[in-house]
Amino acid sequence: MKKALICFLLLFITLSQAPESYATKTTSNQETYQKRMELYTHMESITHIPWYYFAGIDQYERSVRRARRDIPKESGVLGIYIEPQRWIGSLNKNTSDTNPLTIELLGGIGRDGNGDGKALLTDDEDVIYTVAEYLQTYGITKEHIEIGLWNYYQRSKAVDVVVENARMYQHFGRLDLEGSSFPVPLRSNYSYRSTWGDARGWGGRRIHEGTDIFADYGVPVRSTCYGVLEIMGWNKYGGWRIGIRDINNTYHYLAHLSGFAKGLKVGQIVEPGMLIGGVGSSGYGPPGTAGKFPPHLHYGMYKDNGLNEWSFDPYPRLRSWERQDRVKLRTKK
Fold first, then answer.
1. How crowded is residue 69: how many other Cβ atoms within 10 Å of its Cβ?
2. 269-305 pLDDT per residue, tens
3. Given Cys at both, which of 90, 156, 169, 177 links 55, Cβ 3.0 to 4.6 Å?
4. Where are the beta strands (DSSP E) in 78-219?
5. How far apart are CA 168 and CA 270, in angstroms?
6. pTM of the entire structure?
């Protein structure tokens, strides 16, 4: 009895000192997703703009905010950022103005979305209602919404990413699209190390913008994320290659493939673990060139912050996805 009591006390102390559990975090994330969806669907009910466009805009804005240091990180449920001067109006000298009437009169886009008589840049309801009203002035069809997005962002890539996000949310019917998968099966014969930034000479001096995963020819290559297939075909450096943009506006570049999965096409929505091709040795020449190096998968990642896009080291992500897949395999046993 005494031994059992001691074991119980030790277990209690361990749990009380442990970090927040995965279950708690998952619950918290699900609550956030639920609150966002409530805002999106409410705006759909009063504007007839499909909810997934609000979700697409919100997710694009969130990814931009997290990739930049010159704008504040999100503090509420939504990630949408509107510049303060744009909110209150270019002619408005009152930087703390929350009056919807004076804001509109002086050219601001800020609106009162919850009927409290104030247009607050920090209020999620006001922000999403402002976005909804702005888009509604252009129309509620896909074509009209894209025109509104172009006039708002003045950047074609921003419009493309928002629309791709919206398509993914519409396709899956949910907001939780954060899953991942290692690009090759764990049971296959593969090896890799961090090679990002290494010198490359073929085609001119340049750095290696990715990590090489060496594996047997034809080993299945899988999508690591939820995303949209943006490019597919031949590149003189990468050979047969695929480009996927995920829900967090990160571009995944997979090169030197032996070929593509049957039926795969540009614009297709993919998900973690989905077969997209095979490991190969293609590239470094005109279409069909292969065999100039051992079979391997070049895996590159690029981040877009709403202004430009740059390469970053994918090795830490690959290690994380590999560990997660190993946990999944152990759980299935």
1. 8
2. 999 999 999 999 999 999 999 999 999 999 999 999 9
3. 169
4. 190-192, 199-200, 206-207, 211-215
5. 9
6. 0.88
